[in-house]
Amino acid sequence: MKGGGSSYALPAKRRWRRAIGVLLLVLLSMLLPLAFLLGLHNGFLSAGISFDQQSSIFDVLPGVDESDATSTRKEWENDNSERVQYIIQKMGTDNSKDPLTNFGNETENKIVDVVPEEISHQTPGSHAPPDLPKPKTIPAEDNASGDQLDITTETATNAVEESEDSCELKYGSYCIWRREHREEMKDTMVKKLKDLLFVARAYYPSVAKLPGQDNLSHELKQNIQEFEHIFSEAITDADLPNQIEHKVQKMEDAIAKAKAVVADCNNVDKKLQQLVDLTEDEARFHMKQSAYLYQIGVQTMPKSFHCLFMRLTVEYFQSTNDIELPLDEKFMNPSLQHYVLFSKNVLAASVVINSTVMHAKESGNQVFHIFTDRQNYFAMKFWFYQANYQEAAVEVLNIEEIELPDKATLQLYLPEEYRVSVHGLNNSRPTQIKTEYISVFSHSHYFLPDIFHYLKKIVVLDDDVVVQQDLSALWSLDMEGKVNGAVQRCSLRLGQLRRYMGEKYFDEKSCLWMSGLNVIDLVRWREQDITGTYNNLMREPLSANVSSETLPLRSSYLSFQNQLYPLDDKWALSGLGHDYGVNAESVENAAVLHYNGNMKPWLDLGIPSYRSYWKMYLDSENQFLSQCNVNS
Q: In Gene Ontology terms, what is a biological process of this protein (predicted)?
């Protein structure tokens, strides 16, 4: 019987435990949304944002001493800073001794800043901005134009004031996008009512204590109650009652009377200071939130592109045709025009090839070599297998499967892109900011002479360009013994980056060159051992105040020192990925359009007036594009 009794008691206990477990899960499911509503999730946000809106909570809690609130707030901020730094360290890049070992493991192009030190106003212990590591500030260098420069990461620190002048330095191209898409403030009357209510509440306690002011105290109290009743039923201007202007006038009159009689303003000052703090915290919160969402928007693959990638990959493996055809003899013919690009974006690569072929006088002479990674190889392979580019030949290569003598396994690195913000100083005050994006070769580019050992000349294109004219003239170009033919940006000089060039000698007056459109003499490259020079520069120890993120910038410019042939500006026009003010006539006449910057033409955040030049080379009748709503 004892055994029988115990056998029946055990399931009952299990049922009670399960019931308690279910109740706990229900309780947690109710508390979790509440925690998000209260903003408690800001403390463990994985992206590294520290929302300063909570810093004013201690100022408005009743019964909390001001000194205790200050110390509690500092403890909370320090704890949050340590937690953010821990997350950043866990998500940061690997700082190995050999920079060539793990360099460029990030899937997105790194973007750094060249900004004046006087503008950044960075302070020790300041929080890092959304989703990027805390920047290192480096003393700036003078130059002939009076500009000063230094390099930081994509955004500055929280110490920078939220103003139009400093916004672009702190949040990059987000501020350019925000200015172009600024909306008029809505529900202005509701916001005005809230301000009046807060001011009335600030004055009421002081007025209520004054002798002989019972009528004014009653008037303030009545107006406060009326406003509170309004906000219980209205949250937008459309919800407000018809005679709201009359109520506003009554409240303003009561506040004016209170201002005239109140003698002790300490309490009022504290309350109004709280209003200022709350407003600044709210503005800072929304700025950070918007900048963070913008970064997600420019760095995330659109849903339609993900759909296209998946469909093409599935079709590759389901296809009954022999997609892996033998190599076309064109691929190794040095007498043809060979174009090379690195890409993980099938549509971007397709637009580059389609626009180049459509403007070619003889497409039969064109050969395209696309380097991608293992993940995107099958989608790329199937797309270019079923697509038609007139008589041009297209080869898709998985760079991770390429084997070179005495070389480690290759990985795909896209061109490195840097944001450069420059302005002069007038009486130690900043003048108008000038922002540009420059892109240089990645680590993968320096294997091209070994991969194409049978070729003498190639043209390297980035996957964010559109070709508008025939490029055949580049193949008859006399580069005067130089290795790299590129368009230069003479608004920036190499001397402005002298602190990041190390101890090597270089011409400080040299203009900065860009990737996007580059004519490469592979014979001269091998003779000058550009790859060996680049590898040596990448392994050189950096100064303590120089970030490793600047290595590709430094190594690329020094590797091609005295080996650059400047192309005419008409060959390529850059800035279409960040500059809303590019001249329309220049866009029409340029041979190549370069969408350097964050606002790529395939993103919804792309600049609308320039996106049409890119979208016209998409096949609107392609079934895969239609099924994935790419053209919508």
A: pectin biosynthetic process
CA distances from 438 to 187, 419, 445, 448, 467 (A): 42, 7, 16, 21, 19
CA dist., res. 62 & res. 212, Å (int) = 28
* End-to-end CA gap in the chain: 75
The identity of residue 124, as a single letter, is P
CA dist., res. 189 & res. 237, Å (int):
6
Cα angle: 105, vertex 107, 113; to 5 degrees: 90
Tokens 């109290």 label which residue? 221
Give the length of the chain. 632
DSSP state, residue 141: B
- Matching residue, tokens 């003779």: 527
E strand map for 201-305? none
Coil, strand or helix: which one is 154? coil
Q: Which two tokens stand for residue 128?
A: 């890092």
Strands (DSSP E) found in 283-345: 337-342
Please state, in angstroms and rounded to a whole number, the distance separating the CA atoms of residues 31 and 33.
6
Residue identified by tokens 């055994």 is 3
Closest listed residue to residue 376, CA positions, set 411, 327, 332, 417 = 411
Q: Please say whether the beta carbons of 574 and 514 come within 8 A.
A: yes
Radius of gyration of the chain from its Cα atoms, rounded to whole angstroms: 31
Beta bridge partners of 266: none
> What letter would DSSP give residue 144?
T
Three-state secondary-structure class, residue 64: coil
Strands 465-467 and 592-594: antiparallel
| Cα atoms in the 13 Å half-sphere on the side-chain side of 362 | 7
For 433, residues 6+ apart whose C-beta sits below 8 A from its C-beta are 165, 168, 169, 421, 422, 423
The tokens of 450 are what? 């070994």
3-state secondary structure of 495: helix
Bridge partners (DSSP) listed for residue 231: none
10-residue mean pLDDT profile of the chain (632 residues): values are 42 62 68 53 36 32 41 44 42 37 38 38 31 32 35 34 58 73 77 87 84 88 91 86 88 89 73 81 85 84 90 89 74 94 95 95 94 94 91 93 82 88 56 77 94 95 95 93 92 78 75 93 95 90 74 89 92 91 91 93 90 90 88 64
Write the CB contacts of 349 (distance below 8 Å, at least 6 apart in sequence).
Answer: 341, 343, 370, 372, 380, 463
Q: How would you class 430 by CB atoms within 10 Å of its CB: exposed for 0-12, middle for 13-18, buried for 19 or more? A: middle
Rounded Cα–Cα distance for residues 125 and 111 (Å) = 22
In the chain, what are the domain boundaries?
162-299, 303-628
